[in-house]
Amino acid sequence: AEDSRGAGDSDVWSWTANQPPVVVGTAPSGIVGPDTDISFTITDDLGVDFYTIDLTLTDPSSSVVDVFSYGAWLSGWDGTVVDDGSNGYVVTVTTTPAMTSGTWQANASASDSFGESDSDGWSWTVNNAPVVTGASPSGITTPNAQIAFTTTDDFGSNTDELSLSLTTPDGFSIDIITAGQFASGWTGEINQNTSNGFDVTVTTPFVM
Fold first, then answer.
1. Strands 31-32 and 117-126, sheet pairing
2. Bridge-partner residues for 107, per DSSP?
3. With helix as H, strand as E and coil as C, how does 181-201 read?
4. Could you tell me the pTM of the whole model?
């Protein structure tokens, strides 16, 4: 700039534009098992403030669970928070206790040293393994006792995965049901029940 007498001056200055942190790499997604780890990465141009990293979960009953906050694990949860070498952190949660069946939601947030913040949410569905109950006979029984059991599942069992084998007193294994089909010489019933599983009964073709 110059004044009316032609005297002038100039100056140069600089600054750095800082973008807010970004939450990426969120997991899990879709349908997973109850012991699946939860993870995400939070990145930033200049550096994430470790003590602002926050993670909460909403369980299938809509209860909010605090998992990680102010640099510490909460509510019996555990995991790792590792510097990713690029001004951010990789957060991995080991699900202890195991997650119950149903849809879970997570929300992760953090700020950088300038107070810029970001958050992101994601969800997944937990499907526990099928459960076998009501197995019979047991203890001391008659030689021609009927074999029976029931399966239940959160979302539905597949008969193609249904199998049953019998081990004789001399240690010989006999396949009774394979991929949902009775083996030759064996009969019985496989009926779908109201608990997303099957009621299975087997008629023994010989005296045990």
1. parallel
2. 56, 121
3. EECCCCEEEEEECCCCCEEEE
4. 0.67
